[in-house]
């Protein structure tokens, strides 16, 4: 425990009491844990208790907590300059990272990259760029999708509670299509038909600037977009002069076994957003896209004071190097394999697990009650029990009944197995 924390309060409970009086209610919290330090895939709280981190800071830590290469790169950058705004003077890490991402993003065409700070900001800017290029205003997103907490991205977000509750009205010109869901009987045909119905009844196709989709819905419950849907969206966009935006804030930076999840479907979006694990724990986001689309906004129309922070760029360059050197894309597939097998084994023994799904190391289980209905209460109890047993887990999904795993890809097999056994034991304790 650090001395400062030791001096100010001695327990999680005391710090939580201070948190309650100092921090607004709207800032939720999944666990009654006050962190002291972290290393790779483990966290220690202020009382010295150890936790395995299956949440990864919500998908931010693909390369682990305090990755030594990321720390070294940021330290080297700290020695030169910590901040300048790209709108004032240009700097090497921004340009170098843009060149890297342009080369890595799917699509056999010239690309450009805009750097920002948060995922929501990347989505907002992707829409701004799409509007500037197409000179159209409408955007189609998907039910149960999630795109951020700013006003426009909340408008795009399908799930209402708690994100949108009390914050409306939201910007107009946003329409929602159906996302396929095999278990609920919603097919790819249904999803495409829902877009055609929007064109017919709500917004003419030639008013639509962009369709935005998460290749795997994150907050919505780790719902994998079938490759056929992504291919048909590409064709539908091409036929109607609409841009396809892949929101890879949660799926990108190697989480699913390819650097961009949409690569699994062999589809090149016009614009793709990245954030979270891109900079290994530093706030940085990106929009990568077709050069002529990215160049559509007028001079000075894009940016922000902290957009593309030099520290974030240095961290992201180290993250990409680490992925290449340590073959982390392969590791992502292997982690996914190990977790999926372990969870399938659990599902075969437990009727409460109705589905095991995901892509690469983005893996989740859906929990149901004896009648087969979504069981958010059981999910909450498993999350709390796992935490008591030393595992940080998160839930997600429209009904809050999905346990999701976003563990650092740098975690050892042994640690992954230990985490799985805690989930298994938590079912026993709670059932
Ligand atoms: N898009 C997706 C797909 C996300 O998962 C998230 C964050 N969960 C966001 C956008 C928003 O990112 P941020 O919280 O960094 O604004």
UniProtKB/TrEMBL annotation:
Top-level EC class: transferase
Cofactor needs: pyridoxal 5'-phosphate
Keywords: Aminotransferase, Pyridoxal phosphate, Transferase
CDD domains the record matches: OAT_like
One function term, GO molecular function aspect: 4-aminobutyrate:2-oxoglutarate transaminase activity
Family under the similarity heading: Belongs to the class-III pyridoxal-phosphate-dependent aminotransferase family.
Listed name of the protein: 4-aminobutyrate--2-oxoglutarate transaminase
The species this protein was found in: Azohydromonas lata
């Amino acid at each position: 425990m650090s001395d400062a924390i030791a001096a100010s309060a001695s327990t999680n409970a005391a710090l939580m009491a201070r948190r309650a009086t100092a921090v607004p209610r709207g800032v939720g919290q999944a666990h009654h844990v006050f962190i002291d330090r972290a290393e790779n895939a483990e966290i220690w709280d202020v009382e010295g208790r150890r936790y395995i981190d299956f949440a990864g800071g919500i998908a931010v830590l693909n390369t682990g907590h305090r990755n030594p290469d990321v720390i070294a790169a940021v330290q080297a950058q700290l020695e030169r300059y910590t901040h300048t705004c790209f709108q004032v003077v240009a700097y090497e890490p921004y340009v170098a990272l843009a060149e890297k991402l342009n080369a890595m993003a799917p699509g056999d065409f010239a690309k450009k990259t805009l750097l920002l700070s948060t995922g929501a900001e990347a989505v907002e800017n992707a829409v701004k760029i799409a509007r500037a290029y197409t000179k159209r205003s409408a955007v189609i997103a998907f039910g149960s999708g999630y795109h951020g907490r700013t006003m426009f991205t909340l408008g795009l977000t399908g799930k209402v509670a708690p994100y949108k509750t009390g914050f409306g009205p939201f910007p107009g010109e946003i329409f929602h299509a159906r996302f396929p869901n095999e278990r609920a009987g919603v097919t790819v045909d249904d999803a495409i038909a829902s877009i055609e119905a929007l064109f017919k009844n709500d917004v003419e196709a030639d008013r639509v600037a962009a369709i935005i989709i998460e290749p795997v819905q994150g907050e919505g419950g780790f719902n994998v977009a079938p490759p056929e849907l992504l291919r048909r969206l590409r064709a539908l966009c091409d036929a109607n002069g609409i841009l396809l935006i892949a929101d890879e804030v949660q799926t990108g930076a190697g989480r699913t076994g390819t650097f961009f999840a949409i690569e699994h479907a062999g589809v090149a979006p016009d614009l793709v957003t990245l954030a979270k694990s891109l900079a290994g724990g530093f706030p940085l986001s990106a929009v990568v896209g077709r050069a002529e689309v990215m160049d559509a906004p007028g001079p000075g129309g894009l940016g922000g004071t902290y957009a593309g922070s030099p520290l974030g760029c240095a961290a992201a360059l180290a993250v990409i190097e680490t992925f290449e050197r340590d073959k982390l894309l392969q590791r992502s597939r292997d982690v996914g394999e190990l977790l999926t097998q372990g969870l399938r084994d659990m599902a075969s023994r437990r009727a409460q697990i109705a589905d095991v799904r995901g892509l690469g190391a983005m893996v989740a289980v859906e929990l149901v009650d004896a009648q087969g209905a979504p069981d958010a209460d059981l999910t909450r109890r498993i999350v709390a029990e796992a935490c008591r047993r030393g595992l940080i887990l998160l839930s997600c999904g429209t009904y809050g009944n999905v346990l999701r795993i976003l563990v650092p890809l740098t975690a050892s097999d042994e640690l992954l197995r230990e985490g799985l056994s805690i989930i298994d034991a938590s079912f026993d304790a709670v059932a």
